[in-house]
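Lecture notes, unit on protein representations.

Consider one protein chain, 180 amino acids long.
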Amino acid sequence: RKKGIYTIHTTIKPLDKKSTNIFIEIIKFLSRTNIRKAVGDGFITTKKILKVCKDLGIEYIGKLRKNIIIEFFGKKVKVEELFEKDFQEGKFKLRTINKVKFKLSDRVVNIPNVGRVKIVAVLMENQKKPKYLVSTNYKKKIENIIIEYMKRPKIEEKHKRDKSILEVEGNYLTSEKSNI
């Protein structure tokens, strides 16, 4: 079976109950194939999606909204607040990945009703505010989380071309390593 990145296109609007339920059905379908990893953007990355992926044994990597509430050593905080001091006080790791310089900070946290995940605060050169990536594989190296998430621009370019050809608008879920 050929390893690759596969994209599923839908024509649903993001961030509503119906779209979340459709994405859950897609993930359930993927779990019956050989797919063990999914990558999603901020509009797909919800607690419900994270929980379903964990329960089905699918590793999920996605962009997390900065205001989501997580638990760190029993204290409930917003993701953004958890990492503020790291960047203010220079407590971050400097890494160059695919010729791009990053300032990184990471934590293994608990997301209520999801479980243990790894969150990486990512500040790319020339950016003022960090973005937050989450992986349901809390043991995964931060560099690998970023490398896998960085594949998204190529996927998005293909997605735009496909939408143009098909004359549709919509959202998508990407996954790697499948035979669909």
